[in-house]
TrEMBL record:
Top-level division of the source organism's lineage: Bacteria
Protein name, per record: TetR/AcrR family transcriptional regulator
Domain HTH tetR-type: 6-66
One MF annotation (Gene Ontology) recorded for this entry: DNA binding
Sorted UniProt keywords: DNA-binding, Transcription, Transcription regulation
Species this chain originates from: Streptomyces diacarni
Transmembrane regions: none
Portion annotated as DNA-binding: 29-48
InterPro entries found in the cross-reference section: Homeodomain-like_sf, HTH_TetR, Tet_transcr_reg_TetR-rel_C_sf
The keyword Nuclease appears for this protein: no
Pfam families, A to Z: TetR_N
Length: 203
């Protein structure tokens, strides 16, 4: 439309997401968000609402991008839950090693700053973590382990995932991160194998 500046909303949202990802919610100032997106404060408010609304939209965009990758990895090894977890961590480590995006994980960054978030955003972050846990839990379901063990393993995998993100921001090397992930995968595989052995023994 004549007289109005045209811009790609999706691209602006991606740039805002990177600011939140790199700086965290508290330190992502409107000036920084405006500089990254190329939008003035008025345009930011007019397009996305307030900072909390923009942050929520960025969380959803992040979750849609990487959530789809997690789902694909976890679903690629039906009948082999241990291998599915390995594939999940491959995606996680690939994201961490990707030089085109900020270090770490937006969800982990946001979870660490939960006390500074508005209630709605805090609920959203917890919901995204729970969605991640549910995805992993579903991939583990094709196992003879009891429900409690599978619930604990799913929580464990998500905890390791979040830890990898935090460690990467602290400068931990790729080799060390892969060692952590490898030990986590071994723990999952050993736990599932033990459950299967116990189930066979009882049979």
């Amino acid at each position: 439309m004549s007289g109005r500046k045209q811009f790609d909303i999706g691209a602006a949202l991606d740039q805002a997401m990177r600011v939140f990802w790199q700086r965290g919610y508290a330190d992502a100032s409107l000036d920084a968000l405006g500089s990254a997106t190329g939008l003035g404060r008025g345009s930011l408010y007019g397009t996305f609402g307030n900072k909390e609304t923009l942050f929520g939209a960025c969380l959803e965009r992040y979750a849609s991008i990487y959530g789809a990758q997690y789902e694909q990895a976890l679903a690629a090894h039906i009948g082999d839950p241990a291998r599915a977890v390995e594939a999940f961590f491959d995606v996680v480590l690939g994201r961490i090693a990707d030089p085109s995006v900020p270090v770490g994980c937006l969800i982990a960054q946001s979870a660490a700053q939960s006390p500074t978030l508005k209630e709605e955003n805090g609920v959203q972050v917890r919901g995204l973590l729970d969605t991640q846990r549910q995805r992993v839990r579903a991939a583990l379901a094709d196992s003879s382990a009891d429900s409690r063990t599978l619930d604990e393993l799913a929580t464990f995998v998500v905890a390791v995932n979040q830890s990898l993100a935090v460690l990467s921001r602290a400068g931990t090397s790729d080799a060390e991160l892969r060692s952590v992930a490898r030990l986590a995968c071994t723990t999952v595989a050993d736990t599932l194998a033990r459950a299967s052995s116990e189930d066979a023994g009882q049979g």
